[in-house]
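This is your field. Please look over both lines of this record.
***
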Amino acid sequence: MAILNRLLITLLLVSVCPLNAIALDKIIVIKVNGAINSAVAEFVTHEIRNANTSSEELIVIQMDILGGLDTSMRKIIKAIQSSKIPVASFVSPLGSSAVSSGIFITIASHVAAMEPGTSIGMTHPLNLIGGEGEQGKLTKEKVVNDASAYIRSLAEERGRNSHWAELSVRNNVSVSAEEALRLNVIDLMVANLDSLVLALDKREVKLMERIVTLNTADKNIIFREMGARQKILDIISQPDVAYILMMLGLVGLFLELSSPGLILPGVVGSFSLILSFYAMQTLPISSAGFLLVVLGVILLIAELNVMSYGLLSIGGAASICLGSIMLIDSDDPAMQISKIVLYPILGMTFFISAGSIYLATKSRQLRSLTGMEGLVGEIGVVKLTLNPQGLVLVHGEVWNAESDTLIADGENVVVEAVEGLKIKVRKVVD
């Protein structure tokens, strides 16, 4: 009876408690670091959709973005614009920045906040299409104009400083968190995530065509991280990793083709190439650069089979070097192959090139040790007097032989030539 009374009291207390006393809605925090690529875009958009499905209170994108792909950035922004719950961007922790793609996402968010000691800006669209000359200049101008119009429209939609936003694209400027707040680029400057949550409580946010009031006090903060699959794809999509995988794959195939039957280099090389091909689909890869790298490997393989006195190896090394420099068709630092990775691999390429020249030269200097040609220069013993024909024992085999001089049984002879099934010999002079 006592247990029943306690259960009834508990149910009564729960029924009379106000619903807002129980924090059902949550604040979802998504951490984004590094460059924006397809894996990151998939992760962010997926979490925004899930938060909308669960009708959470708020989504916070805590970012330290160094750049990234335009297509992936726009995918994230579209998800923010179509979100039915507020999305806040927060440049954090200390020393972080919202560079290039980062400022577009920040300005597109319903709430933009930064931590002191962070920066935002430097958004000039560096991944330009086109070459030099008048046509290249026109193409670059179109890209800059498109990016300027896009960021201005985002700023105007959120009531932020559209003039500065456009200048950040055209003049490639960057400002601190304090300056960004003064210029009305962001809404808040807070010390940490907890401070952001407190500052947003009871704040009115324009969400599509309506105004909503945030209730962030006493809400549970849930951190979302990439799944194992997304983490792997994110790592593979990094320019340095993609380049290492590509070179590892080409070197593996080079070793397998130059020495058939090794198996392991071929398997590892094929696996690495497949992974690198996936990464290249998400990166601004120059087809000319990639083809130059492939050509270089082909020339190194050809050096082992063609007497070129090192010309093919030198050409192959130069082709790989130029192709590696041209491989990424972007000036965005976040999309570039780092020098720490590029230079050692190029050094390895020249080492392989020199090794190919050495091995090819040595292989041509060595005489054949098998077959008919392997008999030339070998020492044999006369078994039947050569006058001028007779029999000679060479390599454990008895051969028909002939000589220009008389050579008696038991004399040592050296093989000078092989003519069909007969060898020509001469007497070994002591």
In short: Confidence is low (pLDDT under 50) at residues 7-23, 127-136.
